[in-house]
Amino acid sequence: MTYKKVAWFLGALILIGGVTFIVMLTKTRNGDQFQIYEDKVYSDSVLTIYSSGKLDLSSVTASFNGKPAVVKSVSFNKMVVAIPDVGDTTIAKTNSVKLVLANSSGNVFEKGLSFVKRIKIDYVSTNQYSNDITINGKYLNDEQLKVYFNDKEAVVISKNSLSIVVKIPDLAKAFLKQEFNLSLLNKDSTVYLKKYSVQNTSVSLIDSAEKASWKSGILSVDGYHFNISNRFDLLWQDAGNDTKGFVRNEDVNMEDGSRYKVLRMHPMWEPQGSISGIFKQIYLPGAKTFKAKVGFLKNAISSDGVSFEVWLHYTFANRAQQTRLVSYHKYSDGKMFDLSSDFPNDIPDDFSVELRVNAGERSEYDWAAWIAPLIITKTLRPQL
């Protein structure tokens, strides 16, 4: 080999080595010139990136799982970015995100970071009509996140990353103003707490009695239906001496000496005469109770008394159903009587009520009246 060939060979080696060194140096700088002091990123937080090389960070963009990060501040060698909402990483079972830094030449840095979901509660709403509570926020579908009312885990209706819908607890045995604490626990740590108390919501049947459907007649042998030949539609506030029976709303003196605003219901003046009022449909969720006082007007002469009855009408399995909730036979004895009955658990929240007064063999002086007939349901109200 001549000296000339050796010189060319050595020159080629030096050139190749130099290029390789520059490429390796560039790759080293691109890989090592960024410093991130956290290997984890948190939802709703910021991340600080430092550059130890000569790359100007003000010309660099950052993204997490392909979603651009908002730059909070930037200088030549320091960038502070807000972690964007990267969605639900648990779907892919990774719990990690990929940080990418790029400039006009392309990606200059990539790194996988552990993602820690920081559960956030934005607001909580109570829907009395659907008897549930909705919790809105972020990262709520963590398997370890539990919802409790006091010390009992709530029944979850639906759950996703942005909301949890839970059923309001059974309030049938709860008492007025009893407290219920709604709490969210994550790994036994409380992340949210809201106080509620039990309040009563009532529907007055007297207020809607004018729009009810009023009928009178003679009871058939089944004790509910009227005989076809003796059945009449009644007018609201008709004369108080109509032998067909009548329904009126009046302030009157009652048999106990007190004066009340009452719903007067006089049955037909015949043996086994009856009067019925079916009220318009009501939607009322929750545990329900019927309450009323019943009695006779002052100086009433009811020799064999009357039966005060409450019936519930509803639809079950696409069929009309009726259930007798209350039946109480009362004589005119100078005392009022308090009726109270809880609704059966299988009565739907959409129903109507029927008030009925049934006479015995004598009915012409059955001056019966209902005082404050109410349907009461217990609801949870947030404390201020």
Brief account:
The chain is mainly beta and 384 residues long.
Tag the structure with descriptive keywords.
384 residues, mainly beta, 7-stranded antiparallel β-sheet, 1 helix, 8% helix
Descriptive notes:
By secondary structure, the chain is mainly beta. Helix content is 8%, strand content 53%. It has one helix and 29 strands. The strands form five sheets. Strands 12, 13, 16, 17, 20, 21, 24, 27 and 29 form a nine-stranded antiparallel β-sheet that branches. Strands 18, 19, 22, 23, 25, 26 and 28 form a seven-stranded antiparallel β-sheet that branches. Strand 8 and strand 9 form a beta hairpin. The longest helix has 30 residues, at 3-32. Mean pLDDT is 87; it is low at 12-31.
Q: Note the run of SSEs as H and E.
A: HEEEEEEEEEEEEEEEEEEEEEEEEEEEEE
Q: Compute the number of strand runs.
A: 29
Structural class: mainly beta
Q: Mind describing the biggest β-sheet?
A: 9 strands, antiparallel
Taking the alpha carbons of the first and last residues, their distance comes to: 97 Å
Radius of gyration: 39 Å
- Fraction in helix: under 10%
The coarse overall form would be: rod-shaped
Low-pLDDT runs = 12-31
Assess the beta-strand content as a share of residues: over 45%
Number of helices: 1
